[in-house]
Amino acid sequence: MTASRDMWRATAAAALGANIELTATNKELREALHAKRLEAKELDNELVTAKERCKTLKCGALSLDAIHRKLREDVNAQHRAQLEEQRAALQREEDLREQIEDAKAENKELTAFYSTVVEALMEENDTLKREANEAKEMEAATAAMIAAAQSERDYWTQCAQAGEDEAAAEMASAMQEEVETLSAENQERKQELQQTQEELAVAAEESAKAKQELEEMQATIVIIAAVAIGVASLISVLLDRNGEAVSLPSFDPTRVKVVVENERWYPFPFSTWSKKLLPTDRYNYTRIDGKTQCDPPESTSLAAGEQWVEKAWRVEGMGSPDGWLYSFDFPSTHYTENFSSACVRRRIHVRGFTESTPPTGPPSEMLVGSKLMVGDQLASPNNRFHLFLQRDGNLVLYDQARAIWASNTHGKDSKELLFQTDGNIVLYGGTGLPYWHTATHGKPITRFVLQDDGNLVAYAVGGKARWSVR
């Protein structure tokens, strides 16, 4: 009995323990289930939020799609309008070119007609001159004959007065009649000569008038053609331009002489570039401002105390193979390549010079067009920092005796550091190869300065730094 009771108690204790474990497990499961339910609720909330966001995004996508369609339609409409404008501009340009061709043909016909008239007048003029010369020769011969007849008449008259014989008197009378006859003929020839001279003067006046009319006609047609080409150029601004647009750079007037050469295109009668400009154009040769007239490069002289540092003038390429820059008119933007509606062109000639007694000490900056040769240097105003182009080919910046920057071109055959007109500052070798540069091509760099703080800076227009060693 006691054993059964103990077994029951043990079983009850085991069951109680198992119940306690089951209760704990159930509690854990309930807590886990509650957590899962909370998690599911959060997921449901997130799903609702996601659905709302998806709905919003769908609406936004629809709106963006509508906006995109509208923009595309607007762009297409604008493109079509531009195409129509370009077609109309091309048609107007074609019409103008046809008018120019008609004017050229008419000019050719008028030139041939006036040339024929001028040639005929010149031939008539030559004939009249020849007749006038013959009349003068006849007049001189007649005068000689009259003088001889008068001399012989005087001789026979003297003989008759001396009472030699009647034959002498008759001879004197006959000679007198011959003198009178020759005098009458001479008078007629004088009148003919005067008439011929008057005709010659009239012919010369008509010839000069015809020449003047021909020159005026040609000048008028040239001006008309220039105006027509100018109109065609304005029409084709957006349709026909080649190369890169460039602006004239600035140069250091204390180191570089600059001459700008200007020319205009004449389609006829010669179809060539000419230095014969229109009255409203610039001079054939000007300073960089385009207004101040100057001599051609080969005729440009230096002032007292100046000397050339370059052996000859050179043409600034500025991206153009031969240095010529083309445009519709001189004040307009110029381009590096020729195009069909270009009416004018210009190119820049430069040559370095210096004063015979240069200032003491190295400079602290470089300007457009200047260069630093091997052995030359820049020095900061306080003379602490120096930039040397060394003979070993390296470009080195020193803080007194300590190198703080270099171009790392040691061992190269570096020849010069050139401040180019395109804004780039390039270290060139003896063969013309670039070994180092500031990568400022196309930027409006005006000064390359070594400052008192040791910084080497390339400044653009307005004082903005576009490159520095720091």
TrEMBL record:
Which Gene3D superfamilies is this protein grouped with?
Answer: Bulb-type lectin domain (2.90.10.10)
Indicate whether Membrane appears among the record's keywords: yes
Question: What's a single GO CC term here?
Answer: membrane
Please give the coiled-coil regions recorded for this protein: 26-141, 172-220
The residue ranges crossing the membrane are 219-239
List, alphabetically, the PROSITE patterns matched.
BULB_LECTIN
- Which GO MF term does the entry hold, naming one? carbohydrate binding
Q: Tell me the keywords, alphabetical order.
A: Coiled coil, Lectin, Membrane, Transmembrane, Transmembrane helix
Q: Which domain of life is it from?
A: Eukaryota
Bulb-type lectin domain location? 363-470
Identification of the protein by name: Mannose-binding lectin, putative
- List the lineage, top down: Eukaryota, Discoba, Euglenozoa, Kinetoplastea, Metakinetoplastina
